[in-house]
Structure formats: C-alpha cells, structure tokens
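User
Here is a favour to ask of a fellow structure person. I am asking you to supply a protein in sequence and structure-token form. Please set it down just below, with no commentary around it:

Assistant
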Amino acid sequence: MRNTPGRRPQVKSVARTVQSVVTLGIADDLFAVDVIHVREILDFQPVARLPHAPGALLGMIDVRGQTVPVIDLRRKLGYPDAVITERSRILVLEVTVGARPLVLGLLCDVVFEVAEFDLSTLEKPPETGFSWNAAYLRGVGRRHGRFVLLFDLERLFAGDEALPMTGAET
C-alpha cells in the first residue's frame, strides 16, 4: 500500500496482553500482583498490634502520616507463621474492594522483581477434586521454570474479616 500525502496508512489494532507485575515469595512459592496496585515496597518495620484483630490482620503502620493496616499474607493464605528476616517486605497496595478504595500493607517473605506477563498464556487455576477456593487467583503463569500465581486482589480481600471498616454505622 502506497502512502499518499494527507492519507494515513491503516494500522490493525492489536490487543495488549502484556501486564507488568511485582513478583513476591511466600515460603517456596511465587506469587504476583499487578504493578498498578503497588504504591511502594517497604522494608519490614514494627507493626502496632490491634486488640482482638482477626488472625491475618497483623496490625498497622505509619506511611508518611497515613495509617495503613498490614495483612500477613502467610496467614491469609493458610501458610505457617515465619520469622521476619532482612528480606521481609511490606507491599503498600491501593485496592478497590466493592466500591471501597483501600490502602493496605501486605507482608510477604520477599519481593523479587517487576516482570512482564503475557496474559494470554495464563492458565486457570487447576481443578483438584477437593474443596479449594481459587477465586482469588486470576491465573497461573510460569517464570524461569516456576509456577507464578497471579492474584486478583479485589477477590483476595472481598468479604475479608481482616479488612478495616470505614464509615461503619452504629
């Protein structure tokens, strides 16, 4: 096709299926969250405990004057507790759950990198024949020969007893 003055060549629209994610580890397992939700990644810092808080709600931290609840991802996913190390990190996330915008800290064992995933290659979580709720996963991918579980953060925290209630009516 010849390009004539005043006429633009036609370009086919290609759907973008690549997404940037932050990969993180819990025990020996690899997970990922969409980078668009990550506000920042912090070294572990002391967490102020909350009395009678659900098990996954570790407590709260101060992030530049904002009180941020911290969710222990190990507890949330049913992993045994671990010792905090120099590699432990808190991902500060901005997530909308239902109609509520929330800022949450997510304690994880380690944060690895920002990587790109081709969403068209994600697989559905496997059927197991057991009662297992995989609704909080967007899919299963692979990176460097390992499985990577990509979280659906809204579903991970939807209806969660560990989420702070704001504007609760009495």
